[in-house]
Amino acid sequence: MADEQPSNGELSRLIGRMDSRVDARFAELSTRLDKVVSVEVYGIQTTHFDQRLAALQMELQRCADAIATNENEFEQFQRDQAQKREDDRQKRLYQAIVPVLLGLLSVAVAVWAVISK
Fold first, then answer.
1. By the 8 A CB rule, do 14 and 6 touch?
2. Measuring CA to CA, how many Å separate 57 from each of 49, 64, 69, 109?
3. Residue 2 pLDDT > 70
4. Cα–Cα distances in angstroms (integers) from residue 18 to residues 7, 22, 25, 29, 31, in the given order
5. Which of 10, 60, 89, 104 can pair with 6 through a Cys bridge, CB separation 3.0 to 4.6 Å?
């Protein structure tokens, strides 16, 4: 019986099973390959990602520079306002003192004129 050869029907069934297994493996391989990205596409995506990252870094730097400029301008504005308040305070002080001093001077001149007669 060791010398017995399979019949044509058995060979047909074995070939059918092997064919179905090969089809299943090819289908599995096909689904795996669908998930794989080609080297060219990966290179393009990586290049695009790097360019986008560089653009975002440049935009971030521009924003940081703009913020620093705004902070400097605001500090200068605050210094200018403080100087303006100081100048206004001095003007009001002189506006109050000068008339009083002129009044005292005119009173002193009037008193001196009366005394010297």
1. yes
2. 12, 10, 18, 77
3. no
4. 17, 6, 10, 16, 20
5. 10
Give the phi and the psi of residue 3 in degrees, each rounded to 5: -85, -5
How far apart CA 31 and CA 82 sit, in angstroms, is 73
SS3 content of the chain, % helix, strand, coil (to 5): 90, 0, 10
pTM of structure = 0.51
What pLDDT score was predicted for residue 7?
84
Q: What is the pLDDT of residues 51-83, one digit of tens each?
A: 999 999 999 999 999 999 999 999 999 999 999
Between CA 54 and CA 67 the distance in angstroms is: 20
